[in-house]
Amino acid sequence: MENFKENKKFQETVATAKTLFWKHGIKRVSIEEICSETPVSKMTFYKFFKNKEVLAEYLLRELLDKWHEAYTKIMSQDMPFPTKIKKVIALEQEASADMSEEFIKDIYNNEFVELQKLVSEDRNRYHAEIAKDMIAAQKRGEIRKGIKPEFILYLLEDIGNKVVDDKLSSLYSSKQELIMELTNYFFYGIMNNQPDA
Amino acid sequence: MENFKENKKFQETVATAKTLFWKHGIKRVSIEEICSETPVSKMTFYKFFKNKEVLAEYLLRELLDKWHEAYTKIMSQDMPFPTKIKKVIALEQEASADMSEEFIKDIYNNEFVELQKLVSEDRNRYHAEIAKDMIAAQKRGEIRKGIKPEFILYLLEDIGNKVVDDKLSSLYSSKQELIMELTNYFFYGIMNNQPDA
DNA sequence: TGTAACTATACGAATATTGTATTTTATGTG
DNA sequence: CACATAAAATACAATATTCGTATAGTTACA
What we know:
Order of helices and strands of chain A: HHHHHHHHHH
Largest sheet of chain A: none
Low-confidence stretches of chain A: none
Largest interface: A-B, 5 and 5 residues
Oligomer: homodimer
Strand content of chain A: under 5%
CATH topology of the largest domain in chain A: Tetracycline Repressor, domain 2
Shape of chain A: elongated
CATH class of the largest domain in chain A: Mainly Alpha
Distance between the termini of chain A: 48 Å
Number of helices of chain A: 10
Number of domains of chain A: 2
Mean pLDDT of chain A: 89
Helix content of chain A: over 70%
Structural class of chain A: mainly alpha
CATH superfamily of the largest domain in chain A: Tetracycline Repressor, domain 2
CATH architecture of the largest domain in chain A: Orthogonal Bundle
């Protein structure tokens, strides 16, 4: 696959797709809509991406990489642990701010198998890293001594499951809200000293 | 046409449609989606509505009637004119709060001719009424003496045009924002004593 | 049991979308 | 200029989706 990242038309196409996907989800947006909005001809589009899902994959990968980079940066900084946690939570919030319910649904729900795979693989990877950071924090006394590292990993997995739990989801008006709640619950729940809300 | 307003399935169908239309606009929502979400069979749907646009018409008429009722109520109350204006503006805001950009686009833009007709007819009707109220307010000294009644009507028409002006729209991140700005501009612009923001 | 309201299923027709092929039109670049 | 490159425009077959209707089956219930 060629690398089009410097290509102007490519960048414009990706930008349009991001706007539309974030607003309406993936299913409700057609390739032709992306093309006419950009504007770019359909032929050029297919030069860049095999199909709509591959484009969504590209965007999602971009998002996850950015998230990971920001997370690593926060964790590597020299600041109190609770401050880091707050920043990580804010990061989460920021990333999902302009994301529609529909977009998240399209990723978690149905037909886009590759996207689900991408997200779940990434989750595993990042969870391992987060767990590592948490264990290190525990050694430094920032996380309660009583918690087993395996339990932290378990909790992270569990959050992933809870996000797609319909019963729990129905208690919240949006997935973002639920994700925030779970993120808060996780980080504050394991911390040594509860910070002020 | 039969009157189904007491029918439970009818009410459920209308409720689902409202949720979906308000979120995604009209074009992006299919009849089948409304049916499976409600849930109601397609046959029953077509018993209620000839097609999607007729359903949207029903919802829009409901909305416009409610708006009008609330407006009349505010205007008939005994309170200072600036307070009324504020309430009317708040009403406008409230009505469009959970409405997506997409829904407004679908009404103003393109293919749904009947909806546009409905809105423009209503606009004329309500404009006449608003103008009447404004002229009465002017008689009571609540609106600047210098303003001609015809100018008020002209302004109201003008607002309708500005809403669909792409050049102006591009200055705002959403149609709602633009509509609010214009509504504010109109009401505050003609008032006798500028109320505190 | 009968009837009214609704569902389930199936289906043809219309539309929309996808993905590709072919031909034109710009846009540089030596 | 001439040539190469990139993109646009157009057209098109293959699918997929959506629409609207017909028919048969189910449920609720007086």
